[in-house]
Amino acid sequence: xxxxxxxxxxxxLLAPPVVLALLLTACAAGxxxxxEPPPVVDVEPAEPEPDGEPAADPEEPxxxxxxxxxxxxxxxxxxxxxxxxxxxxxxPPTDGAVGPDGTLYLATRLGTVHPLGDDGVxxxxxxxxxxxxxxxxxxxxxxxxxxxxxxxxLSSTDRNGDTVISAVPVEDxxxxxxxxRTIYEVEQPFSNHNGGAIAVGPDGMLYLGLGDxxxxxxxxxxxxxxxxxxxxxxxxxxxxxDRYGIPADNPFLDTEGAAPEIVAYGLRNPWRFAFDPVTxxxxxxxxxxxxxxxxxxxxxxxxxGANFGWNLMEGTLEFIGAAPEDHVxxxxxxxxxxxxxxxxxxxxxxxxxxxxELTGVYLYADFCNGMVRGLLVDDDGxxxxxxxxxxxxGSVVGFTTDDDGEVYVFDLDxxxxxxxxx
Length: 422
Fold this sequence. Notes:
5-stranded antiparallel beta sheet, mainly beta, 31 strands, Neuraminidase
């Protein structure tokens, strides 16, 4: 958000499932008096881990020698036999998030949020269907629970197509669709490249991925423009100020004219991104223009101020100019409209127990291909291997994980599929 007194950002910028597929490849008005700008707030650091091993309790017997040695984790194996198990049907699913009691909630593009139980999908606990539209790449696009579990955040587009981040309270572990509050808004000039993924980071802040505003080629030059949150990753504190606060360590607070909520930029359409719950690394799948679909990987610290290159670059190729000096190239890229597909869909890191061979592997797909793929990197973040995993999720629009770290695949045709061992 620019450093001017307006916490509501407004800029001006594809519908049925088929139109959405094609476009993935390529709110309220202000009051007469301008509202106060969001406050700049300090971020509480995470509690440090104690150095060394904790001292033994002198009153407790030492049972270390009696404890069995943990089983060594198997080596990663991208040839492991897998299958997809359909666990639910929704119309259509877009995202998922684990609630404070461990329940997995699923969002639909139409604007509803449902719990997933042993007997399938439950009744909607949130319904914003009258406040959104599924024209273009619009709808309810992402959900995430606050770090303290007190609110469920929704990332959607309103009836005008503009991005709205809102929150509903959580009572007794269940979202309650009343007293919903609007946190953050961005006017969208066009109907595509909304991004829309949200996540609560390891620091408890709320992160939002926004596309460059739409159409083709970034006509607004938003990707390299720090005065707009379009084409950027946004980081805000939803628990501060009237609506939200700006974390004091956001990287562009001292950059004249820059939107202070930006934490990284140079993105075309980060339809989906995710934090690795073990390493805190950030994986961003950025949909390409004409030549490259890309996967970006940075540590949480490296995300601050990162420039992923668009629209000067598309992946590692020049688009309208040379690579900026601070360009962060993708960890992996493939040809748009090539054998791997035409519209990348990220993507989560596997941290479950059912398929230990996939531990630490980034799982993703492509809307135009559907085959789930895996990326494996080493401890230095260097690509080791990528491979097709032999399972087809259909028109894949997203992934999520449950409380056990097991991974689910969302098919735009309505299927919710869990990745299981064959």
